[in-house]
Amino acid sequence: xxxxxxxxxxxxxxxxxxxxxxxxxxxxxRVRIARNLQHxxxxxxxxxxxxxxxxxxxxxxxxxxxxxxxxxFQLVKLxxxxxxxxxxxxxxxxxxxxxxxxxxxxxxMLNEDESVSIMINxxxxxxxxxxxxxxxxxxxxxxATAIDDIFExxxxxxxxxxxxxxxxxxxxxxxxxxASVMMHLPALVMSHQINRILSAVNQVGLTVRGIYGEGSExxxxxxxxxxxxxxxxxxxxxxxxxxxxxxxxxxxxxxARERLLADSALRITDRVMRSxxxxxxxxxxxxKESAQRLSDIRLGVDLGIxxxxxxxxxxxxxxxxxxxxxxxxxxxxxSTTERDMYRAKLLRETLGTKN
Length: 355
Known about the structure:
ATP binds at residues 28-32, 93, 127, 178-182, 209-214. The protein is an alpha+beta fold.
C-alpha cells in the first residue's frame, strides 16, 4: 500500500492558500485538459497491456517524486488503493468516479498541495486538472496549459488538423478543454430566480451541474458552471466566455442578497441563526441537511449576520462532511447512522460546543 499524502492537512493548506477573488460566491475554479496518445487505442478500447504502456510513457515526464516548479508529484496507481481512499479522492475532486469505476490501469499524479491532479487512463489517456480556490479560472488555465506543454514536448498527442485534439467523447474534441467554477448561489435560489438564470446560462454555450459534475445534484445551493463547447472556439475564447458569464451571475447573486436583506432581514436572520444553532448542538445530521445548514451559515457570514467561520473553514467543511472523508477521519466502515453522528460531532467541534 502506497504512503499517501492526501491528508486532512493537505486539504486545509490548499483551501487556505490565496483564497482567490469573489470567494464569498465562487468556491473554486477548475480547468481540465483531455489528451490522448497517438497509435494507442483510447482507454475504452485499450487492453490492460496497452493502458500500462500509456502509464509507462506518461509518468516519467514528471519524474514521479521529482520536484518541479509545480511541487513534488506522487504517482498513485488505483489498483494499490483501498476503496475508502478512492472515495476520498473523488470527494475532494482530485479524481473522477469514471477513473475509479471504469478505467483499466488507472492512476493519478498529485502535487503536494493538490492543486494539480493528473489522471491517467480515465476516459482519455491523460487528463490534466488544476483546481484553485475562489475565482481564478485564468490562473488555473495558465498552469494547466503549461503542464500540457511539458507533456507535449515528450509524447505525441492524437491530433487532427481540422478537428483538433481527439478524445474518447465527441463533446471534448477540439481544445479538449473543460473550465468550470463552483458557485454558492443561495439568494438566487431563495428568491426563485435560479431557474431563469441557469436557463440563460445554457443558451450561451455553458452548462450547469451539481457539486460532483454531470448527473449530480446541486446540494447546499452549490452549482458548477462549465463550458459545453470545445470545438470551434479557441481556449482563450472559452475561458473569456466563462469568466464573463460568471461575473454576471456574481452580480445577480449580490443583487439578490441585497434585496433579501432589504425586504426580509428578520426572516433571513432567523433562518441563519436556526441553522447555526442546529449545527452547533445537533447529535445526528444527514448529509443533505448539513449541506443546506452550512449554506445558510455561509450566507449569514457573508451578509454580516454572523461573525462566524471563515470562507476557508466553510470550504473545508463541505468536503469533510462527505461520507468517505468522515470514515477516513474517524474510522473505517461506518453505518449511515454512525456517519450522521460523526458528521454532527465534527460540526459541533468546529462551529459550537465540544460536547
